[in-house]
Amino acid sequence: MKTKNKKEAIAKAYQQAGPYLGLGAQLAATIVLMLFLGRWLDKQLGTLPILTIIFSIFGGFAGIYNMIKTTLNLNKKKSE
Questions:
Q1: Per-domain residue ranges for the chain?
Q2: What is the mean pLDDT of each successive set of 10 residues along the chain, which is 80 residues long?
Q3: What 3-state DSSP class applies to 46?
Q4: What angle do helix axes 23-45 and 2-21 make, rounded to 10 degrees?
Q5: Which of 56, 55, 73, 62 is nearest to 27 (CA)?
Q6: How far apart are CA 44 and CA 78, in angstroms?
Q7: What pTM, to 2 d.p., does this model score?
Q8: Exposed e or buried b for every residue in 22-60, given b needs 16+ CB within 10 A?
Q9: What is the reported pLDDT for 5?
Q10: How many CB atoms sit inside 10 A of residue 80's CB?
Q11: If DSSP states are collapsed to H, E and C, what string results for 27-38?
């Protein structure tokens, strides 16, 4: 009986943490995608490193905004 309760507790913990597990990867992917987009545009336009820096910073802000927005939405759903 104890192992069943322990397994249920672990399953419940994973279920509660699941929506948050991908947020870090999503943040990193946004920043990296914008970095490569900035590099590509810099090479096309010959403006190295201006657009790389601008797009990287924009990607960081966009990723953080998305992470905060998603966290607030998940917490709102959890409290309802």
A1: 22-79
A2: 81 86 92 97 95 97 95 87
A3: coil
A4: 20
A5: 62
A6: 46
A7: 0.79
A8: ebeeebeebbeebbebbbebbeeeeeeeebbeebbebbe
A9: 87
A10: 5
A11: HHHHHHHHHHHH
